[in-house]
Target: N-carbamoyl-L-amino-acid hydrolase
Amino acid sequence: MFAAVGAAHRSLWLRPRQNEEPAVVEIKNERLIADLRRLAEFGKYKTGVDRVAFSPADVASRDWLKERLGEIGLLVKQDRLGNVYGAWPDVDRALLIGSHSDTVPRGGWLDGAMGVIYALEVARAFRESGTGVPIGVDVVAFQDEEGTYLPLLGSKSLAGLLSEGDVGHAHRSDGEALTSAIASAGFSGDPIVADRHRLVGFLEGHIEQGPRLLAAGRKIGVVTGFAGTRRMSIKAEGRADHAGTTPMTMRRDAGRAIFAFASWVDSAFSELSGAETVWNIGSATLKPGAPNVVPSRAELALEFRDGDLGRLERMESAVHDKAAGLQRETGLAVSVDVTTRVPPTTTNSKLAEELAEAAADLGEQPMQLASGAGHDCMIIGQTMPAAMFFVPSIGGRSHDIDEDTAEEDIVLGCRVLARAVERLISNELP
Amino acid sequence: MFAAVGAAHRSLWLRPRQNEEPAVVEIKNERLIADLRRLAEFGKYKTGVDRVAFSPADVASRDWLKERLGEIGLLVKQDRLGNVYGAWPDVDRALLIGSHSDTVPRGGWLDGAMGVIYALEVARAFRESGTGVPIGVDVVAFQDEEGTYLPLLGSKSLAGLLSEGDVGHAHRSDGEALTSAIASAGFSGDPIVADRHRLVGFLEGHIEQGPRLLAAGRKIGVVTGFAGTRRMSIKAEGRADHAGTTPMTMRRDAGRAIFAFASWVDSAFSELSGAETVWNIGSATLKPGAPNVVPSRAELALEFRDGDLGRLERMESAVHDKAAGLQRETGLAVSVDVTTRVPPTTTNSKLAEELAEAAADLGEQPMQLASGAGHDCMIIGQTMPAAMFFVPSIGGRSHDIDEDTAEEDIVLGCRVLARAVERLISNELP
Model:
């Protein structure tokens, strides 16, 4: 995606490691960490955070963030989805930075939140620098990236990709409608839509949520693109019989068919996969689900991801073939219902290169990697140049109360973002 | 279990097929079927019945039955569990007949109910015969054989095998306590416990709930015994990781371990099984259960049944060995929790022989078979001589609204029961 990064550049504004030149924009480490810890108090759950979109903790955390953004002189808006936006005043053009502040249930304290506090701290540092900037720094905290109601809700809205119908139909797994959640949260205000005349691009910092930086011994991962995702449910329909009285040869066991499919997945996908292909069977259901009843219906949720569209096609095709084969062999109805087809995408190569150069400026050799997870950056990239970077997750853990990142890595990530912003608002833009 | 049945005996009381001798005890076919259909109105659900224990339909159906038993001069009692008992008056000894009238949710109209109405019709026919009997005919409708709160609840209580603690701890899968269900139903009265000085034995008629009579072209199956049952849950514990960002080689996927176990079950049990062995994986759960999260916990419910205790032991032993092997191979915690060990039992051979002779008296060659399902008879057999017989289930179906039996087979079963009762109360007893 971008050329290999060479020797570290001299920094004009940031404090270089060798202390040769004075910093103009200065990230304050203690303040950064303190704000991150303060945000984690909203919805604190054991060592993690439970701050799902539209929960009271989410609402309160957004009020807190609006105060912080207002304090540094940004023009603060919030829309009915809860998206919080701080606009740099008195500029015609700005670079947008940020992430999401909602979490999964019983999640970690950094996923999304770190990128939001990075944006707060970087904007604050630029405000404090007193340097007149030709291009401002806008800050965003997206809503419901985690999909409690609708995955990537806030960034889709900002990118103008969300319809009224999407909002009207979205609901939580327990059935609660998004529209009810909006009313309960008390959010109002017109949708905040990205102003393409104003915004020159988007940068997002995030934890890796995987172990690859750790395994490679790197501190900064520059994201080259987002893996495409396919999700499907595989269903078999047989007949419920009494499991004590029905001879084995006379059964139409939907569970057995689904187990055969699950066994096949690992061997077949091992053949079809590339170095970064991943797959998962995340749920399985047998019905009626009693120990003494032969399952009449069985269902698996299968997901796989890869950066190569052709490989995704071959994997999906193999799934359809296998289902048809199982139907022939067992006489059961075996079906495949594809619920998600997200194509692989790439980040903006110019912005990604700036992120890599920023890391190199700070003496860090970045790692290039594709993101297996979806992020707000992937959505915003559909409407403007966008790129993102990762810092290491301890043990590769995320979406869990054990999620954590070394404090020095958190600080380094914020300095890389500040440096990239500095490069972009002072250089010619993409 | 009993000697092969020879040529049909002459019936003294029942109308022989060749019409050689007059009937004394006469089963009235229309009345039998009408009562069965009337009972099926309580909790009617499409073509089946939803009359789970302690439901309003169950309560109402028991009131209806008490009226019918009172009409024919039996002394009617009901206890706090809902068990309904009609005692033949003015006798010191009696033969007990009956079954259960509760159903599974959305079950069939015959499972249990048929045996209760058989008992009503047979007792009624003997009352109407005007013949003085040395031994009376008592009728019982057990409660909750299906285990909505506690499997075989009513028969366990009648057999004196139920403790106060059992009642106190039993609850429905949604958490409702049995004691609350008793209060809601308004049932009261001391437990009805089988009077061993009075009762000489127990006979139960039931649908087969399987396809073996149908496959063999027989109408009456005399049950030689009840298969032993083992139930266990197999659990694996791994780690929840993001399925988009965690490389395949770095996962601790509990679901994959459980799928490997499921595949093994079919091949291993095929080796270990006898002609009548059955097994079932009735439920599977992966947690947290999201498409994009590697399962951290996975669980299967495994059940197997056989008439041979040694085979059950070998199968259970193989399960433990496989779980230990999977734990070694995967490094995950894999455990086996055995929740049920019911030993195989036999029915009383003298009573089973009388049932077979009764069938033969009516010109039917009975089939001997072991029951894969548990029945109230299995419990009552622990406290007095007990036996049971089956009539064919169309398509082998049960526990389903499609459950049915040909009307002529229903009638034949009732006539076999009447003939067996006739033989037993006039012959020397076991």
